Amino acid sequence: VEASIPQPLRETWLKLSACEFNGKEQFQKEVVRHVETTLARSIYNCDDNAAYSGTALAIRDNLVIKWNKTQQQQTLQDQKRVYYLSLEFLMGRTLDNAMLNTGLKDTAREGVGELGFRIEDIIDQEHDAALGNGGLGRLAACFLDSLATLNYPAWGYGLRYRYGIFKQEIINGFQAEVPDYWLDFNPWEFPRHDVAIDVMFYGTVNPGPRDDHGNIKKVWEGGEIVQAIAYDVPIPGYGTDCTNNLRLWSSKPSGGEFDFGRFNSGDYEGSIRDQQRAETISAVLYPNDNIDAGKELRLKQQYFWVAASLHDIVRRFKKSHRPWKEFPEQVAIQLNDTHPTLAIVELQRIFIDIENMPWDEAWSIVTRTFGYTNHTVLPEALEKWSVPLVQNLLPRHLQIIYDINLFFLQSVERKFPKDRDLLRRVSVVEEGTPQVLRMAYLAIIGSHKVNGVAELHSDLIKATIFKDFVDIFGQDKFTNVTNGITPRRWLHQANPKLSDLIASKVGGYDFLRDLTKLNVLEKYIDDKTFKKEWMEIKLAAKVKLAKYIKDTTQMSVNPHSLFDIQVKRIHESQYKRQQMNIFGVIYRYLRLKEMTPEERKKQVPRTSIFGGKAAPGYWMAKTIIRLITAVGEVVNQDKEINGLLKVIFIEDYNVSKAEIIVPASDISEHISTAGTEASGTSNMKFVLNGGLIIGTCDGANIEITREIGEENIFLLGNLAEQVEDLRHQHRFGKDVTMDPKLREVCDAIEAGRFGPEQTYSGLIASLTIGFDYYLVSDDFSSYVATQDLVDEAYKDQDGWATKSITSVARMGFFSADRAINEYADEIWNVEPSNIKPS
Ligand code: Z15
C-alpha cells in the first residue's frame, strides 16, 4: 500500500513543509537546538564532539531537504537512471564535503566560531566511513560525487558493513589490526525499515507447474531466508541542489525464520545463534585489495547485496507500468569489477522464473542493461568461484549460469566451427578439481560494454586476458574510460589555500565544475609573486604534515627537506613495489655514510614518507612494513646523517589522512611493474596538488605524462612490452648476477644492519629463488638514477615551481566529471536531469 497524505489535506501539509535554514543565525539556532534536544546535552557539557554532532545534524537538515526534492523530481521526470553496484564505497568523512558542496562552509565557520569552536576541530571529530580497501572503493566514491555534481539521476548500491577496513597500528615496527567499529554515531545514514527484502540461500530446485509455453518450471525453494534492510545516504553535488542516493544493505534475520521449535524446547541460545548468522553477512568488509580469497561468506555477501539491489531496481521500474522491453531504456547497471556479476544471473532469473519471460527475450534485456568495468589484469585478483560452493549456496543460479554458458558456446561454435580449444578457453566453467566459474567471462558475456580504467590497461585486457572475447564479440564491445578524481574533495577540500589561489587567477571557482579551466594558469608561469605564493602554499602543506607527524609519531621532520611520499595499499605479492622504494632509501643511506662532511653538505635533504595497509595474514606485505620501520629506526637517529635522510611510516593511512598527505608532496612514487597497475588514482591527486611524480610507464602515469609533458615527470624503468621477456630471462636465463647496486642493498640487509636478517629472508628470496617476478632488479638502477635527477631538479626551486604549476594547469582531463560524462555517453546513454533550484 502506498502511504501518502490524501489529496484534500496536502495543502495543509505543504504549508508546514520543512525548509532549509538560511544564514548564520538560523544555522546557530539549529546547532544549539540539536545539541540540546536531539543529543540532550547542554552548554555545560558541549565538547568538540557534541559540537560536531550538532553541526552535522544542522547541515544534514538542509541536505535532506534537497535530497527529498531531488528524489521526487527524478521520480516525476521518470528518465533513465544509472545504478552503480560496488562492494566498496570508500567515502571518508562527510561533513566538510557536505558543507562545501552546499555552499555552507563559511556560514558554519562563522557560526560555530561565535559559539566557541573552530570548524577544523569539529571536522576532525568525524570517523571516516571506510567501506573500502583502496583505489576501487575510492573511485566509486569519487564517481558518486561527480554523478551528483553533473545532475545525473544515479544511485549507488553497496553493503553497510558494521566493520569497515581495519585500523592499522604499528607495534614494535609491525602491523597489527584493530577492528573498525564505526557506527556508534553516524548522522549521514537513514534506516529504511520499510524497505526490507527477503533474500534466499541454499535450498533445492524442484520441478513445478507448467508455464504458458507448456514447459515444466523450475522452482527454487526451501532455503534459508535473510532480510536486507536499506540504509540511505545522501550524496550532494557541488553547486547544484541535485542530491543523489547511496543505498547500503544491512542483513538481519528474516521475521518468518525465528525458530520457535527450538525456542519452545528450551534452546533459546541456539536460536539466537541462528539469528546472528544472518547478521554476519554484512558484518565485515573483506580486507583484501586485488586478491581473490574465495570464501563462502564473501559469496554470500555478493549475492545478498545483488539480490536486494535488483529486487529494488525491478520494483522501481514496475511502478512506471512500462513494458519489459523498455527496461534497458530506463535502467543502466554498472558492475564495479566482477564482485556484482551475479546481478546478471539474478536479473535473468527474475525474468524467466518469476516474470515468466521466454529466455531469449529476457537475455536480450539483460545484456542491454549491464556494463562491466575491469580493474586488473593480475591473475590472483580475477574471481573464480568453486562450482560445488555455488551449487550448494545458489543451486538455481548455477543452472542459469550453465544455460548462459551453453548458449554462448553454441554461438561461438557457429562463428568459429570446430575450434575445440577456443571453446575450452572461453567457457565460463574452467575444468579442474573442483571446477570453477570464471566470473570475468560471465560479466563480459552478460554486458553490452566492457571497459578498462586507463588506456594502457584497456589495451592490455584486449590483447591478453580477454583476447578471445574481442575475436568473438568484436572490438566495439571493449572500450576505455580513464579514471578520474573529484577536484572538490582532492583540491578544494584538501587544499583550500591552493584552491583559493587558483580561483583568484582563473576567474573564480568554476574550475571545480570544469577542470579544464585550470589551463589558464599557464599564463602566470612567469609571474614571480604568483610563483612565490604557490611555493609558500606547498611549504605550508608540508609544515602541516610535519606537525601531524610530530603529533602522532614524536618524530621531527624538516619541512624544507624534499618530501618523497608513497602511500597506497601494500599488495600481497608486491606489484606496487614499496620494496623498490625502501631499497632505494637504503642505497641512499649507504652512499651518505660513505661521504665526507663536505660532500654531505651538498646533498638535498630528503624525508621518505610511507603509508599503507597490508591485508592481515599476508606475510610478504607485512615484512615490507617491518623493513620500512626498521630502516627508520636506524637512519633517523644516525648522528652522521644528521637529518639529511628521514624515514617515516604513517600509521593507518586512510582518506582523511590522505587529505593531509596529498597536498604535502614534492614528489610521490607510482612505481609499479609496467603493465600491473590498471590505472592508479592517487597519482592524479598528487599532481593536481602541485606535486611531481616519479613513476613507471604504467596505468594512468602514461596519460598523465602525455597531458603534462615529459619534462614534468620523472619516468623510470622497463616498459610493459619488455616484461614478458625479462621474466623469461629471470626464470631460464644463464646470467643470474644481480644488479650490483641492489646486491649492495641486499648485503646490508643480510648483514643485519636493520635487525635480524631472518626477518627479511623471504623478501630477498623473492628476488632470487622467486625469480624476481616484479622485476625490481631490472628497474632498480634506473630508479636510483632517476632519484638523482629528482635531487638535481629540486636544487633549482624556480624550475621546480615551473614544473609544478604547468602540471596542475594541464590536469583538467583527470576530473572524475570527464570520466562520468564518458560513461554516460558511451555506455549508459543517460542525460543529466533538470534539478530545479529550491
Ligand atoms: C582495486 O583497488 C583495484 C583493482 C582491483 O581489481 C581490486 Cl579488487 C581493487 C584498483 C587498481 O589496482 C588501480 O590501479 C585502479 O586505479 C583502481 O582499482 C580504480 O580503477
From TrEMBL:
Cofactor: pyridoxal 5'-phosphate
Catalysed reactions, semicolon-separated: [(1->4)-alpha-D-glucosyl](n) + phosphate = [(1->4)-alpha-D-glucosyl](n-1) + alpha-D-glucose 1-phosphate
Molecular function (Gene Ontology), one example: glycogen phosphorylase activity
PROSITE patterns: PHOSPHORYLASE (PS00102)
Keyword Cytoplasm: no
Keyword Cell membrane appears in the UniProt entry: no
Described purpose of this protein according to its UniProt entry: Allosteric enzyme that catalyzes the rate-limiting step in glycogen catabolism, the phosphorolytic cleavage of glycogen to produce glucose-1-phosphate, and plays a central role in maintaining cellular and organismal glucose homeostasis.
PANTHER family: GLYCOGEN PHOSPHORYLASE (PTHR11468), GLYCOGEN PHOSPHORYLASE, LIVER FORM (PTHR11468:SF3)
Family per record: Belongs to the glycogen phosphorylase family.
NCBIfam families: P_ylase (TIGR02093)
Protein name per its UniProtKB record: Alpha-1,4 glucan phosphorylase
